[in-house]
């Protein structure tokens, strides 16, 4: 597979200025790496440690966090090391593997958000049937299917006839070269990425509106069933909607830039390319920030986790994270 290693332009007189730029970018990537690993690791630990959060929704959150952690543990460290040198310092083969993992993680996140949205949709539209339709066993099967199916969809990208990965100048990310096989690119975007992306947003928007419209009715049902797993609270919809909205805001600029670059690789400024690429990657740690800011029970789970104390009864009986 052919890759083009693009070096940072500049003569000897500009070396110091460029060096400061490398250091600044490297520090930024180090922060992203640290936040991604710690944030998602904390999310997984809190859900596993808190019995009441080990629900289908919690399992989907763990799957989403695991996909995000893959970026922080396997992708960003190599980008950080390259940023300190001002260029991609690893082999073409490593670029292919890292680029694939980045792409795999992104498509996994979209799929996890989609199944999480469907899970919440069932809890709202069929609250009395939710616990029967969505069990932990069902969620495990869904998660396994997602990881395998997405892998099979993405794996053609590593073959030269289908796709190539190239390190982008001054960005330190190995990005798919979509022009290598336009037929595969069209099928991937039109059949999988765009429909999933749109469905996640539309369903969550509809879900948010339904939650507000039927809030009183849902509260009555919740009191009757006394089950937080059957009927989600208004706040839980805000959490999910915020996660989805943040994901789409983070990635839409990157997708727009990539569409532009399909026609001309040189039209986008390097600084803009760096900004949109790493804003998208930084979404990998934003979910843990959202949980902490918007969900009191998650904050309580963090406190209990660090104090290593036994969960009190009101935590054991609390409703699920989402």
From TrEMBL:
GO molecular function list: G protein-coupled receptor activity
Record domain G-protein coupled receptors family 1 profile: where: 39-291
Keywords: Cell membrane, G-protein coupled receptor, Membrane, Receptor, Transducer, Transmembrane, Transmembrane helix
Pfam families cross-referenced by the UniProt entry: 7tm_1 (PF00001)
Membrane topology qualifier: Multi-pass membrane protein
Subcellular location: Cell membrane
Principal subcellular localization: membrane
Alphabetized PROSITE patterns for the sequence: G_PROTEIN_RECEP_F1_1, G_PROTEIN_RECEP_F1_2
Cellular component GO terms, alphabetical: plasma membrane
Entry's transmembrane regions: 22-48, 60-80, 100-118, 139-162, 182-208, 238-260, 272-294
Gene3D superfamilies named among the record's database cross-references: Rhodopsin 7-helix transmembrane proteins (1.20.1070.10)
Source taxon at top rank: Eukaryota
Family statement: Belongs to the G-protein coupled receptor 1 family.
Name of this chain's protein: Trace amine-associated receptor 7a
């Amino acid at each position: 597979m052919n890759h083009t290693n693009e070096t940072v332009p500049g003569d000897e007189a500009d070396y110091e200025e460029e060096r400061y730029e490398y250091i600044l970018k490297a520090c930024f990537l180090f922060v992203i790496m640290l936040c991604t690993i710690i944030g998602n690791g904390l999310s997984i630990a809190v859900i596993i440690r808190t019995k009441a959060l080990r629900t289908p929704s919690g399992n989907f959150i763990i799957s989403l966090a695991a996909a995000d952690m893959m970026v922080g543990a396997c992708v960003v460290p190599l980008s950080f090391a390259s940023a300190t040198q001002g260029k991609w310092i690893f082999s073409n083969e490593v670029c292919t593997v890292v680029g694939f993992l980045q792409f795999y993680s992104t498509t996994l996140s979209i799929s996890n958000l989609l199944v999480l949205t469907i899970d919440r949709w069932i809890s709202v539209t069929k609250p009395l049937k939710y616990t029967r339709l969505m069990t932990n066993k069902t969620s495990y099967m869904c998660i396994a299917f997602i990881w395998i199916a997405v892998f099979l969809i993405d794996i053609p990208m590593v073959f030269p006839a289908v796709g190539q990965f190239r390190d982008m100048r001054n960005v330190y990310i190995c990005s798919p070269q979509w022009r290598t096989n336009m037929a595969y690119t069209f099928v991937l975007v039109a059949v999988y990425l765009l429909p999933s992306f749109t469905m996640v947003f539309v369903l969550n928007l509809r879900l948010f509106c339904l939650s507000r419209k039927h809030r009183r009715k849902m509260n009555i049902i919740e009191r009757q069933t006394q089950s937080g797993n059957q009927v989600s609270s208004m706040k839980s919809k805000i959490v999910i909607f915020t996660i989805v909205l943040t994901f789409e805001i983070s990635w839409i600029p990157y997708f727009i830039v990539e569409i532009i670059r399909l026609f001309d690789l040189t039209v986008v400024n390097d600084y803009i390319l760096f900004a949109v690429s790493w804003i998208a990657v930084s979404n990998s740690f934003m979910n843990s920030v959202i949980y902490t800011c918007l969900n009191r029970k998650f904050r309580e789970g963090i406190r209990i986790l660090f104090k290593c104390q036994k969960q009190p009864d009101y935590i054991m009986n609390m409703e699920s994270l989402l």
